[in-house]
Amino acid sequence: MKTKIALITGGYTGEAEVSFKSSAFVYSQLDHDKYDIYQITITQDAWFYVSDSGIKCPINKEDFTLLLNDSILKFDLAFIMVHGSPGEDGRLQSYFDLVGIPYTSCDALTSALTMNKGYTKAILADIEHINLAKSVLLFDTQRAEGVSLVEEKLSLPYFVKPNAGGSSIGMTKVKVAEDLQAAIDKAFDAENTGSQVIIEEFVHGREFSEGIYRNIDGELIVLPATEVKTTREFFDFEAKYIPGLTEEITPADLNKEQQSRISKILKEIYVRLNCKGMVRIDFFLEKETDKFYFIEINTIPGQTPQSFIPQQVRATGMTEQEFYGTLIEVALKR
């Protein structure tokens, strides 16, 4: 009998649009001879499956079952492909823990923690060879005094971004002091900020993104890095999703020592944060010092055909079908 997979998509934020694209690609690449795959859409109004005949069938949230053709369908695994809330902040993971269904992503605690950029940096601060840009974390009660707090501790230019959320939504590069308050307000007013904003000193260097996962034998596998070169001021939402604005080079041009050093750092991050499944870690390589600077970790990385992880999987000679199958089998073994 085939393993029944609930491929979860949608979400409660503006990133749902990306979730639908990611889940569509994952669905197209999974081994349908081995798995029965059901795309489950999650919105704030409803959780549902659309049958081949176009009928919208609701999910029973009490146990995450599906009434289909007069039979109750129980799932063996949830393949979570929801960017933003509730798929990336631990809420969906907590739910699946409660109903006893295994899933492909990090657990609830790690997911919630890594959505908070400031707290994540605090946990990673003492990892050998990792560097962190100087930063200030602002809470909603500090919005009015935010400018003075930042100017007291940091030097221009700054990156101002919501402390939660993804896809660079609400993010601004600030070059002059007069623009700082507007950037802080933009970040606070963006969707799903966690009512917190993080401001970081700008790091001058090359930007990279790299995936890491654990294989069926329990080994940590670091995928080839991707270097990001954009014509935009920085790698913002438009640069990520509008074709032609960004050049992505996979595998990136890093020498053997740099590859070895960043691989060691990424493995330590994965273990330190108790990650599960695939994650993607973004970092800078500072031009003057050759030091790696951690930017952030993404526990539900994008999976469109052009996304970093599929690029990196292909660069290893593996197919996406093999890769996603490994994630499923590892999750079923937990």
Structure, described:
With 334 residues, the chain is α+β, with helices and mostly antiparallel strands. It folds into three domains: 3-104, Rossmann fold; 112-131 and 204-333, 2-Layer Sandwich (D-amino Acid Aminotransferase, Chain A, domain 1); 135-201, Dna Ligase, domain 1. Helix content is 30%, strand content 29%. The longest helix has 17 residues, at 256-272. It is globular, with a radius of gyration of 20 Å. The model has no long low-confidence stretch (mean pLDDT 92).
Structural descriptors:
10 helices; seven-stranded mixed sheet; globular; Dna Ligase, domain 1; Rossmann fold; 334 residues; D-amino Acid Aminotransferase, Chain A, domain 1; alpha+beta; 30% helix
What's the layout of helices and strands?
Blueprint: E1 3-10, H1 16-29, E2 35-42, E3 47-50, E4 56-60, E5 65-68, E6 71-74, E7 77-80, H2 91-99, H3 108-114, H4 117-124, E8 130-132, E9 135-139, H5 146-153, E10 158-162, E11 172-174, H6 180-189, E12 196-201, E13 205-214, E14 220-222, E15 226-230, H7 237-241, E16 246-249, H8 256-272, E17 279-286, E18 292-298, H9 308-315, H10 320-333
Parallel strand pairs: 1-2, 1-7, 8-18
Antiparallel strand pairs: 2-3, 3-4, 4-5, 5-6, 9-12, 10-11, 10-12, 13-14, 13-15, 13-17, 15-16, 17-18
